[in-house]
Amino acid sequence: MTTAQARTTDSGAFDSLNPATDEVVGTFPIHTAEDVAAAVARAREAAGWWADLGFAGRAERLRRWNGVVTRRANQLAEVVHAETGKPHADAMLEIIPAIAHTAWAAKNARKVLGEQRRSPGLLMFNQAVTVEYQPLGVIGIIGPWNYPVLTPMGSIAYALAAGNAVVYKPSEYTPAVGQWLVDAFAEAVPEQPVFQQVTGFGATGAALCRAGVDKIAFTGSPATGKKIMAACAETLTPVLIEAGGKDALIVDADADVDAAADAAVWGAMSNAGQTCAGIERAYVHERVYDDFVAKVVEKSATVRPGFDADASIGPITMPAQLDIIRRHIADALARGARAVVGGADAVGDRYVQPTVLVDVPEDAEAVREETFGPTLTIAKVHDMDEAIAKANDSKYGLGGSVFSRANGMSLARRLRSGMTSINSVISFVGVPSVPFGGVGDSGFGRIHGPEGLREFGHPKAITRQRFRAPLTLTTFTRTKKVDAQVAKLITLLHGKRR
Ligand code: NAD
């Protein structure tokens, strides 16, 4: 079987191929359900050891791992470059924030997840109350190929910092990147298999969902997300879903148009548009529309696909995506859109030339569905109410961007999305302290930040009685007088307002 860059061999294994050259990058086993179960059993044992290390012991080891990744970042970037085709510099651009996230998770896990005192309230005033987030146990992480370091590390580093063991199933297109991360971890933490990888196609991922892990953190397409949820439902395994997006960039009349155009081009075209939180649509105030389009056209001319050292974007990593990009462009053009950059012939065998479409009907696939190529649609709007309404009229709601001098904050709040950047694009990804995740078909649950740490723990409440209260409720020896006094107290406190 060949699923484009991932090709099976005769011996229950598959090759990952360089999408620019078709060279074999690595050969990996297709793990069966039994293999996955064995990995989860090993992880279960390691999880106890890892949890017992406590926050300080884990933080120390995560820093050691992060040191290995940092010192050999160039080597890792070469593996990313080979397996995804993205330029080496773009590979570094995802490795650097991944390092920052790991450092943040290690440093902040105790503060976010450690024991916190809570108020006991009036009824249980004799109790000392604490909440702490305890590890879930073993986390199954299923990842995509487009950012094979940054995306899974948003789950892996946070799950490990929260005290869990991890079994990671990378995309069949990028197993060598996953193996590199696992090997680097084993070098820093040789004692136990706290972080393992299983490889294969969808069936291996499905087996992980059914292997009795304590949570699945999935990043990928909404269609696969639904299959993951169905599989996890069988065992009531909780899931976190980070799915696709159709992010919008909004340009207000008072915006810095040059900066907005620059951000739109980078947001739409970088990584050849294969970015979940990439910009795919722009809604631009009519007063600056012509200027914005002219600047986008000018700036797009400098974006060159290729595999050489100076290329700005690489090939499309997953060849099946070429058909989707071609279809979206053709459909838009057939329905009256104009290509001001690229167009009908933009999609080749491996590479896609930057394409900017204007006058695209709002119900065209290029506006409604995730294109995942270096394409951008630009629409003129009368005012920001229209921009917000059109941007929000999407089943997706991952990120987004607003360019405005006076109204950035209010516009950002009104965008239906998990994250919004004002006067820049995709900046939220590089801020470890903020959560990352979407609404609607973009998924649910959060990676990154305190919210991302809490995803991988369960809140354990403990009440400790400090003394016996005169009005004790939790006993059969309670008198009618006590009940009456408690009822009177609660009426006094909450019964006054009509
Ligand atoms: P995909 O859904 O095809 O595959 C993702 C992973 O799921 C792969 O490891 C795959 O082997 C596995 N898988 C496939 N079928 C499965 C099944 N039935 N059960 C269990 N696992 C299964 O996605 P992709 O093409 O690798 O990634 C691209 C998508 O990911 C895009 O939609 C993109 O927007 C999204 N993405 C989202 C984020 C985010 O954080 N929200 C980040 C990166 C990518």
UniProtKB/TrEMBL annotation:
GO terms for molecular function: oxidoreductase activity, acting on the aldehyde or oxo group of donors, NAD or NADP as acceptor. Gene3D superfamilies: Aldehyde Dehydrogenase, Chain A, domain 1 (3.40.605.10), Aldehyde Dehydrogenase, Chain A, domain 2 (3.40.309.10). Pfam families: Aldedh (PF00171). InterPro entries: Ald_DH/histidinol_DH, Ald_DH_C, Ald_DH_CS_GLU, Ald_DH_N, Aldehyde_DH_dom, Aldehyde_DH_NAD(P). The keyword Oxidoreductase applies. Keywords: Oxidoreductase. The keyword Cell membrane does not apply. SUPFAM superfamilies: ALDH-like. Residues 10-461 form the Aldehyde dehydrogenase domain. The active site is at 242, 276. One of its GO terms (biological process) is aldehyde metabolic process. Belongs to the aldehyde dehydrogenase family. This is Aldehyde dehydrogenase.
